[in-house]
Amino acid sequence: MNNNDNIDRAAVKEMSDETRHDLNADPITGEPGSHPVGTGVGGIGGAAAGAAIGSMAGPLGTLIGGAIGAIVGGGAGHAAAEAIDPTREEAYWRAQYSNADYYREGHDFDRDYHPAYAVGYANRARYGVDARFEDHESDLEQSWNEVKGDSRLAWEDAKRASYDAWHRVS
Known about the structure:
Layout: H1 9-14, H2 17-22, H3 36-54, H4 59-73, H5 78-83, H6 86-96, H7 109-124, H8 137-147, H9 155-168
Helix pairs in contact: 3-4, 4-7, 6-7, 7-8, 7-9, 8-9
């Protein structure tokens, strides 16, 4: 049960616009906790806010922060927000990367592979449910070039890790 369950919905409809706004009331139905405008544009604002916060961690932080902000800001719901948990994804790939057939001896997770995986899982949220990696590869390559930092992987090598991460969160 959330806090909004205890609010008299008829009373909410009678409140001033300012007071209704404080309750996040839907402007049409008066239901508290609604975010019709926020849902429509929140993804953009959320992406910007997440990217700004992530910028403190550099380009890779911007990528991950923007993706998570877009999901949360867009009001996609708890399940969608959990679909891309950067902490969980990083931990998973940190444990698995050296087992992948594309792993190169002497390359390490933080420097070389983490940016590649992040391009896959963080960008996945930008596209529709039925989106295919191959259809967005040029965008993903551009993202790779923006966040790769000191990685020694060329896109042709990094894209296999990105592909795996894309499909893991699909």
